Amino acid sequence: MHDSRLERIHRHYAPRVSKDRESYDILDWGSAESQRIRFGILVECMREAFGDDLSMDRGLRLLDVGCGLADLWVYLCEAGVSVSYFGVDVTEEILQECRRRHPELTLSCQDVFADGDFGTYDIVYCSGVFNLALGNNDEFAVRGMRRLVSLSSYLTVANFLHARASYHYDHCHYYDPEALIARLSDLDLVLRDDYLENDFSLISCRRETINKGM
Predict the structure, then answer these.
(1) Ordered strands of the 61-65 beta sheet
(2) In whole angstroms, what is the distance from residue 105 CA to residue 63 CA?
(3) Which letter, b or e, does each residue of 47-71 get, where b requires 16 or more Cβ atoms within 10 Å of its Cβ?
(4) Which residue of 15, 46, 89, 177 has the smallest Cβ count within 10 Å?
(5) Using one digit for the tens of pLDDT, what is the confidence trace for 126-151?
(6) In this model, does residue 1 exceed pLDDT 50?
(7) Cα(190)–Cα(198) distance, integer angstroms
(8) How far apart are alpha carbons 212 and 214 in whole angstroms?
(9) Beta bridge partners of 190
């Protein structure tokens, strides 16, 4: 699954990269606005978990899994949220364009879902990684969500395409959030599906750890 997944992702995204193309279009999102709405859910979760003061003084480290063109970092800056940002993606062509647009960022071409020690971060965010049809998405989503939570000390937020969407694209995979949560019942996840018709987020917040460590 590992090699075929990466090959499928590369075939889909690498040809879309162009310096003259909008970032949301390269990443195959419907619009820049829908992308920003998803980012807004993360910021809401951060404020609920850590409070309204999200300045660099907090020292929060954020891992953006499937970072694409680092649109999340741009959004956070505009929202007045300061974090130590680390972006990872498996498509080198996308990262090359991201480095051209944002040379100041720390980016790496790595597969977070592969075995191995990847360290831990205060916040782990994952947007769009589970959307491309790969053949066994439900299994990948279960394994992937466990991996994301294991990399986070405090807060994990990941979004998925919702099965209730009025239109389903053939190259995408859509999830039943209740079925996914049932398979991840040991993670104590919170569901947010009130912001877009075709999207939902799963949130893991270790409040007891936040209260002790922050």
Answers:
(1) 106-109, 84-89, 61-65, 121-127, 152-161, 199-205, 190-192
(2) 12
(3) eebbeeebeeebebbbbbbbbbbbb
(4) 15
(5) 999 999 999 999 999 999 999 999 99
(6) no
(7) 17
(8) 6
(9) 203
Q: Average pLDDT in the 61-65 region? A: 97
Closest by CA position to 202, among listed 136, 184, 58: 184
Using an 8 Å Cβ cutoff, are 131 and 173 in contact? yes
**β-bridge partners, 64:** 87, 125
Q: What is the dihedral of CA 12, 15, 21, 25, to 10 degrees?
A: -10
Q: Is 162 helix (H, G, I), strand (E, B) or coil?
A: strand
Dig out the tokens for 6 from the structure: 């990466």
Question: At 113, which helix (H) or strand (E)?
Answer: none
Question: Domain segments of the chain: what residues?
Answer: 2-213
CA–CA separation, 145 vs 203, rounded Å?
A: 10
Say whether pLDDT at 203 is over 80: yes
CATH number belonging to domain 2-213: 3.40.50.150
Question: Which residues contact residue 153 at a Cβ distance below 8 angstroms, ignoring those fewer than 6 apart?
Answer: 120, 121, 122, 206, 209, 213
Angstrom distance (rounded) from CA 153 to CA 56:
18
